[in-house]
Amino acid sequence: MINIIYQHKNMTQKTFGYIRMVTAFFLAAIMAQAIIFNNYVLAIVVVVGAIAVILASKRNVKEVMVDERIIAIGGKAARMSMSIFTVVGAGITFVLMFSRDINPSFELAGSVLAYAVCALLILYSVAFKYYEKQN
Amino acid sequence: MKNKIKEIRQKLCITQEELAEKAGVRRETIVFLEQGKYNPSLNLAHSVAIALKTTIDKLFIFDV
């Protein structure tokens, strides 16, 4: 794989996709083993290695990978994901909170989910304000 | 918004891939532009117009 990365100076998106897929496969497999054996050093090394492989490959891709249409699609997808997570998360929070009589741990799960939804909304608002000032 | 990208591109014998490379975008973006499914930014419209050796007003038809 290292040969593929260094020999393909003009890599296509297809080759890059293949390298990314193989890297993700090995990353998942090694990470799983590292967690099972409580070897966190291996996990960190593998993550750093995978990032290095992907960045090195990305540098050799000759084609344009991200343009304004992709950025616009990313924005729409992010907004929709946030909306869905917020609405569904709030709904599940209510269900969990009202079900605390069934199992007391549901209250904790509901609280965690509620905080996660709030944190996401705050993060979105901060990011929105930041980009609004930039453009 | 309609456009004459495909028509002018074919007259100049340029492939979608070549036009994408000249305009600095993905080939898929050129496909969507030609089909009228994507409205480009002023920057992209300008880049495409330059790549096709024409002007924005001749390339895009604003049907309001």
Textual characterization of the structure:
The complex is a heterodimer of chains A (135) and B (64). By secondary structure, chain A is mainly alpha-helical. Chain A folds into two domains: 2-59; 68-134. Chain A has helices at 2-7, 13-36, 40-59, 68-98, 105-134. In chain A, helix 2 (13-36) packs antiparallel against helix 3 (40-59) and helix 4 (68-98) packs antiparallel against helix 5. Chain B has a single domain, classed as lambda repressor-like DNA-binding domains (434 Repressor (Amino-terminal Domain)), CATH 1.10.260. A two-stranded antiparallel sheet of chain B has the order 1-2. Chain A binds chain B through residues 63-65, 67-70, and chain B through 20-21, 24-29, 32, 38, 40-41, 43-44.
Quick take:
The complex is a heterodimer of chains A (135) and B (64). Chain A is mostly helical and 135 residues long. Chain A has helices spanning 2-7, 13-36, 40-59, 68-98, 105-134.
Question: What is the count of DSSP helices of chain B, taking H or I runs of 4+ residues?
Answer: 5
Oligomer: heterodimer
Task: Compute the average pLDDT of chain A.
Answer: 90
Number of domains of chain A: 2
CATH uppermost class of chain B? Mainly Alpha
Strand count, sense and closure of the main sheet of chain A?
A: none
Give start-end ranges of low-pLDDT stretches of chain B.
Answer: none
Q: How many H/I helices of chain A?
A: 5
Shape of chain B: globular
How are strands sequenced across the largest beta sheet of chain B? 1-2
- Please name the fourth-level CATH homologous superfamily of chain B: lambda repressor-like DNA-binding domains
Largest sheet of chain B: 2 strands, antiparallel
What is the helix/strand order of chain A? HHHHH
Which geometry of chain A do the CA atoms define? flat
CATH fold-level topology of chain B:
434 Repressor (Amino-terminal Domain)
Radius of gyration of chain B: 10 Å
Helix share, percent of chain B: 55-70%
Largest interface: A-B, 7 and 14 residues
**Residue share in β-strands of chain A:** under 5%
Separation of the first and last Cα atoms of chain A: 41 Å
